[in-house]
Structure formats: C-alpha cells, structure tokens
Specification:
This protein is α/β, with parallel strands linked by helices. It contains 9 helices and 9 strands. The strands form 2 sheets. It has a 7-stranded mixed beta sheet.
C-alpha cells in the first residue's frame, strides 16, 4: 500500500515523540490506532511503545492517552489488550472510551480464547482417534498456542522452537496468518547469543546482579517480561463484551476482519486487518462497540 506524506498531529514532533507538557488537543486525523507496530496508516494517528519517525508516536499505553476527551471518531487496536494485566486492560479501555466522541466507533481484535479452546479439543479428539505423527503434531501445536505465550520466559518460546521443526506448518500458518512467515524468518536469522562476547556494560551488570543475588535466568526473565511479548490474559466474546460494557461502551457486537461500521473502512482501515483478501490474524476475535451518544 502506498503511504502518503504524513504531517504529525499537534503535540507530536517529526520524530514521533509526544510533547512533554501539552496534551494533544487537535490531531490531524480523527482515527486513532493504538499499539500499531508496523501496521500504521498515514491517514490515522498511530501510537505505539516505539516511535517510527513521521508515522508513529511513542507512548506507553499503560499510561493515560495524551488526548482530550471526545477527540476521535474511531479508536482501534489489534492484539494489544492481551498483553496487559486485567487491571491495566480496564484502565486502557476506559481511556479509549474517554478519547472517543459520543457516537464514535471502537474496534478491537484479540486472540479468540473460544476459538482456541474448540480447536484444541478438536485436535485432541483427532489425536486420540488415530495416533499419527500428523495428528500428534497438530495437537502439540494447539497446546502450545493455548499456553506458550502466557508462560514463556524467552522470545519465541516453545512456539518458536516448534516452528523450526516444521511438523505442522499448514496448521500453524492457518492459525497465525502473516506472522507465521515473519516468525520463521526471524527465527532463522536469530544469532547464537552464546557466541556473542558481552560488552563492558553487560559484564558490569552481571557483576551487580551477582552482588544483588539475582541469577542470570531471573534477570533474563525480567528483561523478557518488560518487552511485552507475553500474554497476561485471554478473552472470549462473552468476557470481552462484558469488559467493554464495564468501561462505558454500548452496542457491542462480534464482527469479522473484512467488515466494519467504521465509515470508509474498505478504503481507509481494512488493510489493518486484511492482507491479500485474508485475515491477517486468523486466530482473532473482532468486536466493535460505540460510545453512547448521551455520554459527556
């Protein structure tokens, strides 16, 4: 997709950093994409933990959003909520509701716990009926998909290890979409850290950790958790709908990757969830809601 030149909203500089003192009150776009990663549109305001100069502004999404109330017509985020603790998720959704104008549309995508659970049971039954390398591999994948990202202690975890073997590539690709090929490439090009000689800062940090009684494994786990790769909660349609209602949203409904109540979704938004006429993240639960019109 061609990306047009982007003028940063008021309160953002060209490097994507938020002003230190002023809340952004008049963004150039009325559509907000939170936790966008590389999936950012120049016609939207895009925020993530890391900036992309001229396109994505840096912001810690666990903190209040730097916008005035009722600023946006649309607020969107995909596969962000599950990386927050339940308490942080509630605060984050309340902030999404605050910056959305009355009558505005909120769209969210999260990994679908219900879908994962049903597919796990299906693969379990298949493995029990006819034990084979194929059914065993597909069952193993679903166990990993359900659990790994909540318990892993290093990047990629058991899911990355499993993909290296290529034993259930068809199922894995169907489940995680375009992330599958990206993950396989990343794993293949990951350097062997055991052969990398640590620098002076790393060696000094190691000495300090030993002095403090923190093991290397504990330290690496802490660093990993700070990167935000882990899932801290999971949602199905009932729990997500209930949470959205608690945070002040109404008219909550399950949708798909291709359709939306957002005006001009096909021309300006659909690319966020669709790649080559397929859902980018097939394991997703998509839901839309509105902010009640009588909300101040």
């Amino acid at each position: 997709m061609e990306r047009r030149a982007f003028a940063p909203p008021s309160g953002l500089d060209l490097n994507g950093h938020l002003s230190s003192s002023d809340m952004v009150t008049s963004p150039i776009s009325k559509k907000l994409n939170l936790g966008c990663g590389s999936r950012a549109l120049p016609t939207w305001v895009n925020l993530d933990f890391a900036a992309q100069p001229g396109l994505v502004a840096e912001h810690d999404l666990r903190q209040p959003l730097p916008f005035a109330a009722a600023t946006f017509d649309v607020v969107y985020h995909s596969h962000v909520l599950e990386h927050l603790s339940p308490a942080d998720a509630h605060r984050f959704l309340a902030e999404c509701q605050r910056v959305l104008r009355p009558g505005g549309i909120f769209r969210i995508a999260v990994p679908d716990l219900e879908q994962k659970a049903w597919l796990y049971l299906e693969k379990l039954a298949a493995a029990e009926r006819a034990t084979s390398e194929h059914t065993a591999a597909e069952h193993e994948w679903m166990v990993i998909e359900l659990i790994d990202q909540m318990v892993r202690t290093r990047s990629g975890g058991a899911m990355g290890d499993f993909m290296v073997g290529g034993r259930a590539d068809a199922l894995a690709s169907a489940r995680i979409g375009d992330e599958f090929s990206l993950a396989k490439k990343a794993i293949a090009h990951t350097p062997d850290q055991s052969r990398v000689r640590p620098g002076i800062r790393a060696r000094l940090a190691r000495v300090l950790r030993r002095f403090a009684g923190v093991s290397e494994d504990e330290w690496q786990w802490l660093l990993f958790r700070r990167r935000g790769e882990s899932h801290l909660w999971m949602y199905d349609r009932a729990s997500l709908r209930s949470l959205l209602a608690e945070c002040g949203f109404s008219d909550c409904s399950v949708v798909d990757a291709f359709n939306s109540r957002i005006p001009d979704w096909t021309a300006d938004g659909r690319w966020l969830d669709v790649e080559q006429e397929r859902a980018r993240k097939p394991d997703s639960l998509f839901m839309e809601a509105t902010k009640p019109s009588d909300t101040a």
